[in-house]
Design goal:
The protein is α/β, with parallel strands linked by helices and 153 residues long. The protein is built from seven helices and four strands, in the order E-H-E-H-H-E-H-H-E-H-H. It has a four-stranded parallel sheet, with helices on both faces. The radius of gyration is 15 Å and the shape is globular. The N and C termini lie far apart (33 Å).
Length: 153
């Protein structure tokens, strides 16, 4: 099984939390259906850490990212948009000390209900995202433009 970290919105303590947790459960099931072994810190840590306390929120995200560095991939589920925590995860994986093609092979952008593996690093080195790939996931557009505009072709 390929080991993966799931990135999806949580918005702990808001009116969106319950729907986002149900969505996370669906993301976990999607990973299992693809023979992936998922890990998601935002399912585990909010019961122990206070997501509204900036220090504890960063502690939980950092712990999740530390585990994510040891996994085979990072899956960004985009049906419910891109949260601040997801942007932090994207920034983190981009900062890892790997060559860019290897880094992008680890990142997958996915939507539920799609049998496709997602948009990821099947692109030539130096061309990380095409306009067509970004159009498939409108919520990703602003996030990619903010975090890594130099990779859009």
């Amino acid at each position: 099984m390929r080991t993966v970290l799931i990135e999806s919105p949580l918005q702990h303590g808001t009116e969106h939390e319950a729907a986002n947790l149900a969505y996370l459960d669906a993301c976990i099931a999607d990973c299992f259906a693809r023979s992936e072994a998922p890990y998601c810190s935002h399912k585990l840590y909010p019961g122990v850490l206070d997501d509204k306390d900036p220090h504890e929120r960063l502690l939980g995200m950092s712990a999740g990212w530390a585990i994510g560095e040891r996994l085979d991939g990072w899956i960004f589920y985009l049906d419910r948009g891109v949260s601040g925590g997801m942007l932090g995860g994207l920034r983190h994986v981009l900062a890892l000390h790997e060559d860019l093609p290897a880094k992008w092979r680890r990142i997958v952008f996915r939507a539920l209900g799609s049998s496709s593996p997602g948009v990821h690093s099947g692109l030539p080195a130096g061309v990380m995202f095409t306009s067509a790939a970004i159009e498939r996931f409108p919520s990703l557009d602003a996030a990619i433009r903010e975090v890594c505009p130099e990779f859009i072709r």
